[in-house]
Amino acid sequence: MSGSTSVFNQPKPVVKLEQALLDAINAGIAPYPIPDGRKYGYGTAGFRMKANLGLNHVVYTVGLLAAIRAKKRNATIGIMITASHNPAEDNGVKLVDPMGDMLEQSWEGYATVLANTSNEEMAQAYEHLVNETLVDEIRQLQDRPANIVFGRDTRTSGPSLIKALKAALDAVGATYHDYGYLTTPQLHYMVRCVNTQNTPYAFGEATEDGYYKKMANAFKTIMYGRKIHGSVTADCANGVGGPKLQELIKYLPTAAEGGIDIKVINDDVLKPEALNFDCGADYVKTKQKAPPSSKAGPNERCCSLDGDADRVVYYFTDSNGVFRLLDGDRIATLGAVFLAEMAEKAGLSDKLKIGLVQTAYANGASTEYVEKVLKLPVVVTPTGVKHLHHAAARFDIGVYFEANGHGTILFSDNATKTIRETQPKNPGQKHALDSLSASIDLINQTVGDAISDMLFAEVVLAHKAWTMENWLNTYIDLPNRLVRVEVHDRSIFKTEDAERKLVSPKGAQEEITRLVSNYTKGRSFARASGTEDAVRVYAEAYSKHEAEALAKHVADVVKKFGAAPDPRG
Ligand code: 16G
Ligand code: MG
């Protein structure tokens, strides 16, 4: 195998695979060579790129790896084909582990090596990997069955990528189920359902119908006797979330029936170029404005999903015509308020440890609100869903959200058992226990799910009888500024303390700390992006002017330390 073979420790396979299998792998990948000079990497969200730059080669190798992973875990593995909020011509692929979580980090290296393997060496690489992962002194797991499930978003490159994927699965004799179009969180849900059926941890029925029914039933239970005021306009980024939300609506009671009035916009999946164009969660969050297509009036509730429906942000225009964003930080605090209140009413405050997980990008005012007003612990982790997810799993009820709108709430086995087995002593306690129990079902615990998060936010607003203004006024965001700085080599920017401090280049953090100390409520950090060739600087302070000045000065520090070395030495 060319390139980095270091992941494979065994130079010679202990187990030789049948020649017919090796021939099938080579034959299957023949139509999908790596275009000249292409290099691929399994990043924070899997492989993602322009679909025509050899992505079918990559997808084929992901199919091979999924089969090996399924044998290793003796469970069904998921594959999702999507490029989320990226432009229509991009696509991507990621693997989902048996409990519906992201691929274990130690396997990302295997994925990268296999994706960068040339067609000529593919069968050999597969054999190496089988020996590396499925063979030890006492066990040979390669004869286990491999079962895979997969889905895709609405991009035009999807069908040809699915063809490459099936070719790989057929070559290695895996069994599979093609779900067709799904949102990313729906695929995560399916994987967990398949792997937990007939166990005490059964997650639900592994069908779309099962997904909608579970959510709709939970919604009805929590809503009992409450009223959602007005409608909510949901911008679906012209992605797969549009038709899926339309489908869910059929299962939900209408506003007249005590349910919800969801006005779906930007759900055109027939015009490929419309995907994520001038709409969607990423547009709203980064541009800090409503999509031009939004016709919502003052104080009307709006939300935007991203292209694969795993992120959601809320917003409205206030009475003065000012755009107001309620991002992931706000959804997290809203959820935490509700769950803490219900836990208290259920008499379970002492038994259930509730906590919030954020990244350094969370607004300082939200952190202060959670710690000082809600009196709940906050844990900060590096950017990337997997970090937040793992930290949240350490609480009985762990609420995690990135400011960009990706997040969910995890209930530990202990929490689920305690909530479901506590006998209520009065109607108030019964209502609280029922609400907590239904929250467990309403929230997609496998991964951030825009549709489920939206319904949960709607329910909480109804419970509290809060308007958008009320929600916004729970705390006042500190003014903040995000700057993107291009540097010679971003890899020299290394951080510690959940990305809040630079350890390299030497001397840079001292300068940043000195700058921050000049500002009231100042906070700033710089970290290398994991998805772009740049360093990101975040700054917040008491006033808008100060936040902007601090961001500019810290960006200057980054530019100085990140400049190319002087060629004259
Ligand atoms: C990826 C992450 C997202 C994170 C973003 C940061 C996942 C599934 N996605 O999209 O959570 O916010 O990267 O991008 O983990 P950055 O490193 O360029 O700032
Ligand atoms: Mg997404």
Describe the structure.
This protein has 569 residues and is of the alpha/beta class. It contains 18 helices and 19 strands. It has helices at 19-29, 55-73, 108-115, 122-134, 158-171, 184-196, 208-223, 241-251, 281-287, 328-345, 364-373, 385-392, 413-421, 427-442, 450-464, 468-472, 508-516, 544-562, and strands at 47-50, 77-81, 90-96, 147-152, 175-181, 232-235, 262-265, 301-305, 312-317, 323-326, 354-358, 378-380, 397-401, 407-411, 480-485, 494-496, 501-504, 523-528, 535-540. Strands 1-3-2-4-5 form a five-stranded mixed beta sheet, sandwiched between helices. The chain has a five-stranded mixed beta sheet with strand order 7-6-8-9-10, with helices on both faces. A four-stranded mixed beta sheet has the order 12-11-13-14, with helices on both faces. Helix 1 (19-29) packs antiparallel against helix 5. The longest helix has 19 residues, at 55-73. It starts with 18 loop residues before the first helix and ends in a 7-residue tail after the last helix. Residues 1-6 have low confidence and may be disordered. Bound molecules: 2-acetamido-2-deoxy-6-O-phosphono-alpha-D-glucopyranose (16G) and magnesium ion (MG). Residues 44-45, 383-385, 402, 404, 406, 529-532, 536 line the site of 2-acetamido-2-deoxy-6-O-phosphono-alpha-D-glucopyranose (16G). 2-acetamido-2-deoxy-6-O-phosphono-alpha-D-glucopyranose (16G) binds at residues 44-45, 383-385, 402, 404, 406, 529-532, 536.
